[in-house]
């Protein structure tokens, strides 16, 4: 294809494939300033699983007194420590409901209402002169993870991008409908976002930072530009879902495409959420670990939608009450937005580091899938909408037929579960749920194959060792050769 001018070519390069345009539904909270909770929670439930990697191990016991910012969970391997978000007494260390669906080990703290602080994790002297190693150590000690939902430990992302990244991007797209937590953060605390991003930029030895913000938040764009020094570019982006997915954001801003199975560092990029950058600012400049986050509580199922600054570990039911309570019987409650949020079965589950919203949908906003409309009509809309160049209808076909062994070859693990396919499906097939179930089957097959390979290798090694230790035959054990026929005749 030939284009008439360079600008047209450049515009085409800097668009990601697929995507959809759901209604924003942000009007209920986009103009509401972030507010503290009307009353602090009586208890916080600090789940030991709040990040990619194995759960943390509790470091406190029932009866211990804790202060705000004290470590209550240490990671075992890839992960980030978890800190108390209130001061008080530990009243339980046991499995509790979790936003992900299954109960996880949690530390329950009874709030004494005093907010007694622990010692700072770092006492700043000249934060702008910190070495890369010092920044990584501070970020690790502060327990900072990706706060846009992914939950990947930020210190690990920094370490993996060293020497590879030439571009740092802050993700301010917030393309998920209903949610406005990042919007309000950029509008109310632009300095934190920018300076935290510059810390990450300097830690990677780079000299340029790009902040991508969708054009439905132009007031936030203006606020950031008013604070931005010359090494920070604030770039408005055309509104399109899933713009906030890091691979799509990278392509839109740089024109580079992350290869299947690859990471942003493979194309020279490091992407961080704007809330993550603000948490880095708090850690580096004020010595504060990650104990609070902004959460949008919205939907027509609550009386007074709001943006709250919430202690991590606050039960979801407490947030609903803070927003005026339920308005009738909700049709569905989601941790997150309507496209990628996780349906909740128990509002006793707590807010974790990656939760940026609690969506309570009325029965009018959400109704179960109509019966008898679940047959694929092969329209191809899911293929056109998929930003990862996948064929969701094929996943549905293979999964329904039980051909789980074919799913990995179809690149089902590359799916980012953005929900664009399900949103565009006229047959209302729950494609995201099918894909999640398909991924689980693929991982089971991978685990079984790995176990079989390890078993075969172990058996081969054991056989080799046995052969080495088998005693050599002695001369007495060697049978004599039979006498030759001529020798026997001579005798």
Structural class: alpha/beta
First-residue to last-residue Cα separation:
99 Å
Shape: globular
The helicity comes to 25-40%
Integer average pLDDT:
90
Tally of DSSP β-strands: 17
Low-confidence stretches: 1-13, 485-491
Sheet with most strands: 6 strands, mixed
Features:
491 residues; alpha/beta; disordered N terminus; disordered C terminus; globular; 17 strands; 31% helix; six-stranded mixed beta sheet; four-stranded antiparallel beta sheet; 14 helices
Would you kindly provide a written description of the structure presented here, covering whatever features stand out?
With about 500 residues, the protein is of the alpha/beta class. It has helices at about 5-15, 130-140, 155-160, 180-190, 190-205, 220-225, 245-255, 275-285, 315-320, 380-385, 390-400, 420-425, 430-470, 485-490, and strands at about 35, 45, 55-60, 65, 70-75, 80-85, 90-95, 105-110, 165-170, 210-215, 230-235, 270-275, 290-300, 305-310, 330-335, 340-345, 355-360. Strands 1-14-13-17-15-16 form a 6-stranded mixed sheet, with helices on both faces. A 4-stranded antiparallel sheet has the order 2-8-7-4, with no helix packed on it. Strands 11-10-9-12 form a 4-stranded parallel sheet, sandwiched between helices. A hairpin with a 7-residue loop joins strand 7 (about 90-95) and strand 8. Helix 2 (about 130-140) packs antiparallel against helix 3. The termini are far apart.
Concise summary:
With 491 residues, the protein is an alpha/beta fold.
How are the elements arranged and paired?
Elements lengths: L5 H8 L21 E2 L6 E5 L9 E2 L6 E2 L4 E4 L7 E2 L4 E9 L7 E8 L20 H10 L12 H8 L5 E6 L8 H8 L1 H14 L5 E6 L3 H10 L4 E6 L8 H9 L14 E5 H13 L5 E7 L7 E6 L4 H7 L9 E4 L6 E2 L13 E5 L19 H5 L6 H9 L19 H5 L6 H39 L15 H6 L1
Parallel strand pairs: 1-14, 9-10, 9-12, 10-11, 13-17
Antiparallel strand pairs: 2-8, 3-5, 4-7, 5-6, 7-8, 13-14, 15-16, 15-17
Helix pairs in contact: 2-3, 2-5, 4-5, 4-6, 5-6, 5-8, 11-13
